Amino acid sequence: MRNRLKFGIFLTLATLTLPISSVAEANRVVTTIPEAGSVKTEQPNSVSITSEAALSKQGNQIVVNDPNGIAVDDASITIMENTAIVGLTQLTKTGVYTVNYTLQSKNDDPLIGSYTFLFNAPSKLAAQTPEPTTTPLTQEKVNSNSGSNAFVYTLLILAVLVFIFLIWYTKVTFGGAKKSKRK
Known about the structure:
Strand content: 25-35%
Order of helices and strands: HEEEEEEEEH
Largest sheet: 4 strands, antiparallel
Number of helices: 2
Shape: elongated
Radius of gyration: 33 Å
Structural class: alpha+beta
Distance between the termini: 89 Å
Protein backbone atom coordinates (compact mmCIF):
# COMPACT_ATOMS: atom_id res chain seq x y z
CA MET A 1 0.00 0.00 0.00
CA ARG A 2 2.83 2.37 0.87
CA ASN A 3 4.59 1.59 -2.42
CA ARG A 4 1.44 2.49 -4.39
CA LEU A 5 1.12 5.76 -2.48
CA LYS A 6 4.79 6.61 -3.09
CA PHE A 7 4.44 5.71 -6.78
CA GLY A 8 1.30 7.90 -7.10
CA ILE A 9 3.05 10.87 -5.48
CA PHE A 10 6.08 10.35 -7.71
CA LEU A 11 3.91 10.29 -10.88
CA THR A 12 2.03 13.43 -9.81
CA LEU A 13 5.25 15.34 -9.11
CA ALA A 14 6.85 14.13 -12.34
CA THR A 15 3.83 15.21 -14.36
CA LEU A 16 3.72 18.64 -12.75
CA THR A 17 7.41 19.30 -13.24
CA LEU A 18 7.64 18.23 -16.88
CA PRO A 19 7.82 21.21 -19.20
CA ILE A 20 4.97 21.59 -21.63
CA SER A 21 6.68 21.13 -24.96
CA SER A 22 4.01 22.30 -27.33
CA VAL A 23 0.97 24.43 -26.86
CA ALA A 24 -1.57 24.12 -29.64
CA GLU A 25 -2.09 27.38 -31.43
CA ALA A 26 -5.68 28.31 -32.13
CA ASN A 27 -6.85 28.82 -35.68
CA ARG A 28 -6.65 32.45 -36.78
CA VAL A 29 -7.53 34.62 -39.75
CA VAL A 30 -4.64 35.08 -42.18
CA THR A 31 -6.17 37.45 -44.75
CA THR A 32 -9.44 39.14 -45.57
CA ILE A 33 -10.65 40.66 -48.82
CA PRO A 34 -11.57 43.48 -48.56
CA GLU A 35 -8.90 43.99 -45.94
CA ALA A 36 -9.95 44.90 -42.42
CA GLY A 37 -9.95 48.69 -42.02
CA SER A 38 -9.51 49.35 -45.75
CA VAL A 39 -11.27 52.08 -47.73
CA LYS A 40 -12.92 50.86 -50.93
CA THR A 41 -14.03 53.17 -53.75
CA GLU A 42 -14.98 50.32 -56.06
CA GLN A 43 -17.65 47.89 -54.96
CA PRO A 44 -16.34 44.46 -54.00
CA ASN A 45 -18.28 41.52 -55.47
CA SER A 46 -17.55 39.27 -52.53
CA VAL A 47 -15.94 39.00 -49.11
CA SER A 48 -13.35 36.30 -48.50
CA ILE A 49 -11.73 35.20 -45.26
CA THR A 50 -8.70 32.91 -45.22
CA SER A 51 -7.70 31.05 -42.06
CA GLU A 52 -4.63 29.02 -41.08
CA ALA A 53 -6.54 25.74 -40.80
CA ALA A 54 -8.65 23.98 -43.41
CA LEU A 55 -12.33 24.82 -43.11
CA SER A 56 -15.24 22.43 -42.86
CA LYS A 57 -17.80 22.52 -45.68
CA GLN A 58 -20.68 22.93 -43.21
CA GLY A 59 -21.56 25.22 -40.33
CA ASN A 60 -19.89 28.36 -41.69
CA GLN A 61 -21.52 31.77 -41.67
CA ILE A 62 -20.47 35.15 -43.03
CA VAL A 63 -22.84 38.10 -42.70
CA VAL A 64 -21.99 41.50 -44.18
CA ASN A 65 -24.03 44.45 -42.87
CA ASP A 66 -24.27 47.94 -44.37
CA PRO A 67 -23.99 51.10 -42.21
CA ASN A 68 -27.69 50.73 -41.25
CA GLY A 69 -27.23 47.13 -40.12
CA ILE A 70 -28.98 45.58 -43.13
CA ALA A 71 -27.42 42.40 -44.52
CA VAL A 72 -25.94 42.92 -47.99
CA ASP A 73 -24.46 39.45 -48.52
CA ASP A 74 -26.20 36.89 -50.72
CA ALA A 75 -25.75 34.07 -48.13
CA SER A 76 -24.02 31.83 -50.68
CA ILE A 77 -20.89 30.69 -48.88
CA THR A 78 -18.25 28.83 -50.87
CA ILE A 79 -15.44 26.97 -49.06
CA MET A 80 -12.13 26.36 -50.84
CA GLU A 81 -9.71 24.68 -48.43
CA ASN A 82 -8.78 27.51 -45.99
CA THR A 83 -10.89 30.25 -47.61
CA ALA A 84 -14.57 31.09 -47.14
CA ILE A 85 -16.20 33.38 -49.73
CA VAL A 86 -19.63 35.03 -49.65
CA GLY A 87 -21.12 37.06 -52.50
CA LEU A 88 -22.39 40.62 -52.07
CA THR A 89 -25.41 42.42 -53.44
CA GLN A 90 -24.96 45.91 -54.85
CA LEU A 91 -23.61 48.26 -52.17
CA THR A 92 -25.39 51.62 -52.38
CA LYS A 93 -24.57 53.38 -49.12
CA THR A 94 -21.36 55.12 -48.13
CA GLY A 95 -20.17 54.09 -44.71
CA VAL A 96 -18.66 51.39 -42.56
CA TYR A 97 -19.60 47.83 -43.50
CA THR A 98 -19.29 45.13 -40.85
CA VAL A 99 -18.32 41.54 -41.62
CA ASN A 100 -19.33 39.02 -38.92
CA TYR A 101 -18.12 35.46 -39.35
CA THR A 102 -18.22 32.03 -37.76
CA LEU A 103 -15.95 29.56 -39.53
CA GLN A 104 -15.77 25.88 -38.62
CA SER A 105 -12.34 24.36 -39.05
CA LYS A 106 -11.96 20.62 -39.47
CA ASN A 107 -9.70 20.09 -36.43
CA ASP A 108 -10.14 23.14 -34.23
CA ASP A 109 -12.66 25.28 -32.39
CA PRO A 110 -14.87 27.61 -34.44
CA LEU A 111 -13.25 30.84 -35.57
CA ILE A 112 -15.61 33.67 -34.54
CA GLY A 113 -14.99 37.36 -35.15
CA SER A 114 -15.77 40.47 -37.09
CA TYR A 115 -14.05 43.31 -38.92
CA THR A 116 -15.04 46.44 -40.81
CA PHE A 117 -14.17 48.23 -44.02
CA LEU A 118 -15.26 51.60 -45.39
CA PHE A 119 -17.03 51.83 -48.72
CA ASN A 120 -17.34 55.17 -50.52
CA ALA A 121 -20.30 54.72 -52.85
CA PRO A 122 -20.13 56.52 -56.19
CA SER A 123 -22.16 59.73 -56.27
CA LYS A 124 -24.36 58.39 -59.04
CA LEU A 125 -25.06 54.73 -59.63
CA ALA A 126 -25.36 53.82 -63.27
CA ALA A 127 -28.55 51.95 -64.01
CA GLN A 128 -27.80 48.67 -65.61
CA THR A 129 -29.78 48.21 -68.78
CA PRO A 130 -30.45 44.62 -69.69
CA GLU A 131 -29.29 43.73 -73.17
CA PRO A 132 -31.72 41.69 -75.25
CA THR A 133 -30.52 38.29 -76.32
CA THR A 134 -31.54 36.62 -79.50
CA THR A 135 -32.24 32.94 -79.70
CA PRO A 136 -31.99 31.06 -82.96
CA LEU A 137 -35.30 29.97 -84.46
CA THR A 138 -34.09 26.41 -84.98
CA GLN A 139 -33.19 25.69 -81.41
CA GLU A 140 -33.24 21.99 -80.61
CA LYS A 141 -34.91 20.86 -77.45
CA VAL A 142 -32.37 19.13 -75.23
CA ASN A 143 -33.58 16.43 -72.88
CA SER A 144 -31.57 17.01 -69.73
CA ASN A 145 -33.32 14.12 -67.97
CA SER A 146 -32.03 11.36 -70.26
CA GLY A 147 -29.65 10.03 -67.59
CA SER A 148 -32.33 9.92 -64.92
CA ASN A 149 -34.82 8.39 -67.36
CA ALA A 150 -32.39 5.55 -68.14
CA PHE A 151 -31.88 5.00 -64.42
CA VAL A 152 -35.64 4.78 -63.80
CA TYR A 153 -36.12 2.35 -66.69
CA THR A 154 -33.27 0.18 -65.41
CA LEU A 155 -34.84 0.10 -61.95
CA LEU A 156 -38.21 -0.82 -63.47
CA ILE A 157 -36.69 -3.74 -65.42
CA LEU A 158 -34.84 -4.94 -62.32
CA ALA A 159 -38.06 -4.79 -60.29
CA VAL A 160 -39.87 -6.95 -62.87
CA LEU A 161 -37.00 -9.47 -62.86
CA VAL A 162 -37.01 -9.62 -59.05
CA PHE A 163 -40.79 -10.13 -59.09
CA ILE A 164 -40.47 -13.04 -61.56
CA PHE A 165 -37.66 -14.55 -59.46
CA LEU A 166 -39.78 -14.31 -56.31
CA ILE A 167 -42.68 -16.11 -57.98
CA TRP A 168 -40.36 -18.90 -59.17
CA TYR A 169 -38.65 -19.14 -55.76
CA THR A 170 -42.01 -19.38 -53.99
CA LYS A 171 -43.12 -22.22 -56.25
CA VAL A 172 -39.87 -24.11 -55.75
CA THR A 173 -39.71 -23.53 -52.01
CA PHE A 174 -43.32 -24.20 -51.10
CA GLY A 175 -43.65 -26.98 -53.61
CA GLY A 176 -46.53 -25.98 -55.79
CA ALA A 177 -48.45 -28.99 -57.11
CA LYS A 178 -46.24 -32.06 -56.83
CA LYS A 179 -46.97 -35.08 -58.90
CA SER A 180 -47.01 -38.23 -56.89
CA LYS A 181 -46.03 -41.46 -58.59
CA ARG A 182 -48.29 -44.40 -57.87
CA LYS A 183 -47.11 -47.87 -58.27
